[in-house]
UniProtKB/TrEMBL annotation, chains A, B:
Cellular component per GO, a single term: chromatin
Protein name (record): T-box domain-containing protein
Domain of life: Eukaryota
Keywords (A to Z) from UniProt: DNA-binding, Nucleus, Transcription, Transcription regulation
A single MF term (Gene Ontology): RNA polymerase II cis-regulatory region sequence-specific DNA binding
Residue intervals of the T-box domain: 15-195
Places the protein is found: Nucleus
Entry's Gene Ontology BP terms: cell fate specification; commitment of neuronal cell to specific neuron type in forebrain; positive regulation of DNA-templated transcription; regulation of neuron projection development
Length: 195, 195
DNA sequence: GATTTTTGCACCTAGGTGGAAATT
DNA sequence: TCAATTTCCACCTAGGTGCAAAAA
């Protein structure tokens, strides 16, 4: 079934590795966060169409709280446990390294975020802009943003409707410092070649 | 001593790892070429200044024949041996992956060509544009080119004087399929961390 | 035969994994 | 004690080396 409706003048975005994301999502995806930063697995990867081939765009991901809860793993299940910590600091945006670039470039091939890293280290960012700062035991929702920009990469705030945001619920995850659900651990081992 | 004179309106280029290049040059540098492509060691790396920070440039390296001879290693020395094979085909240009980019970008940090690969495979290029095709037992001279371009990366041939070329004789080398001079082999082992 | 090129390989760098143990 | 985090480590992928043997 289609992942997004086809609307004239709008970009269409498909989640490339959706089947894999769904396997994890069934068990409630967990992502490890570490001080020095940990890649996501699965990682975000998109196909995009419907852009103006000659226009310029920035494409980036941000990660927002998916719900207002603090979570804990108890009795083999994830259960809400108090309110989320909303005293938030730290970068939650990861600009794709190809940005800015033309619509033709973005539509030519998969747009992968394999080098995006998750961390719980609010302080000294070693790789500025490469690290997304999250809080453990909170549930998050990644989002994709497509922003039309001028040729020099600057945004033109005088022109409305140049920002498009895409959300895929199957990419939600709970940030952890160690895996809680052994089903998730096994899925990581089975599918991540580094394991 | 200065590597290039300071001329107003002209870019100045410095060879970053010149001391290392000179160590090899004293013994006549050799570079391995293979079918699937071999990196150079030392690799080309430059600092550049004197560009217009807001103008756009393509920066690339090409590799030309350094002399009209075919060479052979005999009695522990390189000696000319007949004429160079000038029936030439295959790409000899390697565009820096950051191209096109602004003068500010190019002047901000070292411009390294560490991923440039040398091959003797004229035919199927697996990495188009990433491989420089050379002939074994010929002597070559790499050159750096700085070309001012329009914002979209296209050249403007109607404007003269937008191309600048820089040549460093200490980066000359003879292409080989196996090292001939053991002094060169030892220098590679001593300085290349992969050995 | 002699020279040049190719192939396979052990070894290296570089860095991404989960697990166990130690720490907080 | 317990839960959560950090550290260390063996093991993995990925790919750049020179070398010896084989092939051309």
């Amino acid at each position: 079934s289609a992942q997004a409706g086809l609307v004239p003048g709008k970009a269409q975005v498909y989640l490339c590795n959706r089947a894999l994301w769904l396997k994890f999502h069934r068990h409630q995806t967990e992502m490890i966060i570490t001080k020095q930063g940990r890649r996501m697995f699965p990682f975000l990867s998109f196909n995009i169409s419907g852009l103006d081939p000659t226009a310029h765009y920035n494409i980036f991901v941000d990660v927002i709280l998916a719900d207002p809860n603090h979570w804990r793993f108890q009795g083999g299940k994830w259960v809400p446990c108090g309110k989320a910590d909303t005293n938030v600091t730290g970068n939650r945006v990861y600009m794709h390294p190809d940005s800015p670039n033309t619509g033709a470039h973005w539509m030519r091939q998969e747009i992968s975020f394999g080098k995006l890293k998750l961390t719980n280290n609010k302080g000294g960012s070693n790789n500025p802009g490469q690290m997304v700062v999250l809080q453990s035991l909170h549930k998050y929702q990644p989002r994709l943003h497509v922003v039309e920009v001028n040729e020099d990469g600057t945004e033109d705030s005088s022109q409305p409707g140049r920002v498009q945001t895409f959300t895929f619920p199957e990419t939600q995850f709970i940030a952890v410092t160690a895996y809680q659900n052994t089903d998730i651990t096994q899925l990581k081992i089975d599918h991540n070649p580094f394991c």
